[in-house]
Each structure stands twice: as structure tokens, then as C-alpha cells.
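Section 5.1 Outputs to date
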Amino acid sequence: MSSVRLERLTAALQHYVDQGMLVGGVALVARHNRIAYLHAFGQRDREAHALMPEDAIFRIASQTKAVVSVAAMALQEEGALLISDPVSKYLPEFARTTVAVARDSGRYDIVPARRPITIRDLLTHTSGVSYGNGPAADRWKAAGIQGWYFADRDEPIGATIARMAALPFDAQPGDKWIYGYSVDILGAVLEKAAGLPLDEVVRTRVLAPLRMKDTHFYLPAADRNRLATVYSVRAGGALARTADAGTMESQGQYVDGPRRSFSGGAGLLSTAGDYARFLQMLANGGELDGVRVLSPKSVQLMTVDHVGDRYGQPGVGFGLGFSVVKELGARGQPGSFGEYGWGGAYHSTYWVDPQEDLVVVYFTQVLPAGSLDDQARLRALVYQAIVDGGRR
């Protein structure tokens, strides 16, 4: 990669800060197993005048899903589960689930599910389970289960998921790609399959082997001053600091909260360096620094499309934990066939490009992020810096 051309990315990120569109963030680009670019910009906490360090800790929200998906594949390799297994094998409450079918009147009927939900349905988001915002949203609200934020819950994740099983879901298993609680349910499955709390499942199968020492469900007290602050884009595009706690848009309760609920769908905190190690393991076919987390065949299975047209985005499908590019022209953005990635609600993103032997991590903390175009600009400026022929 051209270091001169990468400076265009540095200038662009600083422009977002100078224009008041971002407070700060960290961008990391690795190629051929080496970090080509690591840049912290702006401030970790604007009100405290604290600069953004390279090892700042961010709420990665839905980037948790890929980590938990890898843990599921590791358990399959150990023989503890099969992704073809019905969820009810581990969580009996899911033996007979229901689906809410909307009527034209705005009401809905509740019908039995035609088949059991499988672990593979959870991994591919084809379980039919949303974030409680479907036809039966009134029942989900009454049960106190809506939205992806779990850090304020003073109960184990298994207890929340057990209540969820009795609620009507949004679609029949396998029929649609619906983003929601699937990987939170998966987390509860992994606890049963491994006989451990989810934080221990993730630590022993992923974090410890990869030496991801700064990735946690809840922040160690000693790292309080490394946690990046959350801001929101308000009317007119101005950035305002969010409330200290109480909602998913707030600073959250990752330090002082109950610390009991391990959300497999959105609960982790991490650094750009840690998350890049996780992605580099996948890019290497399941191995990093001589430590194997997954077999190459498991990684191959995770990084191909499993859902076809159900995903609904031109040129893109969905694998076991992240989106995958099937047609570069149909997607219409710089990248490569076979690229896979995802992002998080706090305006973070990542991707792995196997053809270019490329890993990209971009962490900011903005929720809601309005019409910010920094992620598209990041992508364009990363690819314009590649000046050789790709994978060695």
C-alpha cells in the first residue's frame, strides 16, 4: 500500500473532525498480515479534552455477532453442537414457537411455526426473530424486550431469551432475512452447549487464544478512562454528547451497570487492534500467530452466501455472521468478490477482503449517525492506496 496515498485518508478523517461531523475515532488497515495504517484522530472525550489514543476502547455493538458466531463454529468443531441442530435441543422453550401474521387492518393473527428454528437459522438471521418491532410489537413491549441494548438488564441472558421464546416472531423459520435477536439466542444456546456463561465461552474459544486482552462484555474499572464517549448527530448536523446512562443511545452501563447480561448480539467492547487480530485470524483461514481457532473449512463455510435473494441487497448475501459480496458491480462500491464484513450501531465498521489480503477496522462512537458518509469515503480511500496486484 502507498503510504503517500494513505495520507489522503488521514486528511479526510481530520476533515470530519475539523467540520464538527465526528469527535474522533481509530482506523486500522492491515495487509499481508502486517499493519499498514493505524491512525487515531480527534478526541476520545471532547468535554474532557482527552485525545483519542490508538488503544481506545469502543462499544462495538453488532460486531459482537461475528465473535459469537466464531465461538459457535468452534463448539461445532469440538463436537459440542451441530449448526443443523434445532435450538430446542439446548433451549426446550423453543420447541413450539409462533409467528405473528399481519392483517390489512393493522391487527395480526398468531400461527404455529411450520418447523423448528435451527442454529444455522440463528447464524444467518433467517430465524424470523426481529428486535421486537414486528407485527406483535405490542406483546414484545409488554414483555420488556425490545431493542438490542442489554447492558442495563439485571438478569442472565438465558432468562431473557426464555421469555422471548413465548412471544410471536415475525416470520416462519427460513422464509426471510430478518435482523434481530438471533445471535442473542445463539449466545444462550452456546451457554447450554458448553456448560459455561457466554463470557467464558467467548473468552476460552476466541479472546484468550487470540490474545484479545482489551475485549470484554463489561469494562474493567481500571480501563474507565480508555472508553470512547458516545455522541449523537442532532438537528442541523451538530454533535452532542449523549446521556450518561439509560438507553442504547447513552454512554451505557458498561462500567457501573449490573454486569449480568451477556448479549451475544451486541454486548462486546473492543479496540481496533484487538478486533483486527480477530479478523486477521479469519483472513488466515482460522489461524493467527501459530494458534488455530477454526479449521479452514469452517471459515470457508462462514464466508459464503447462505441466504440467496432473501438478503435483498444487490450483489450481497449473508454467511454465518456477516455479509458477503457476490457481485462487485451490482453492489457498486470498491472492494472484491468474496469480501465479508459488517458493522455496529455506534457507527463502526469492518471488512476482510481475501483477494487483496486486506483487513480494515474503523471505530467511532456516533448514535444516531444521521447522513454521515465517512464510511463510504474510508472504503474509497483504502482501496485507492493499493498499488500492487493483490494476494501474495
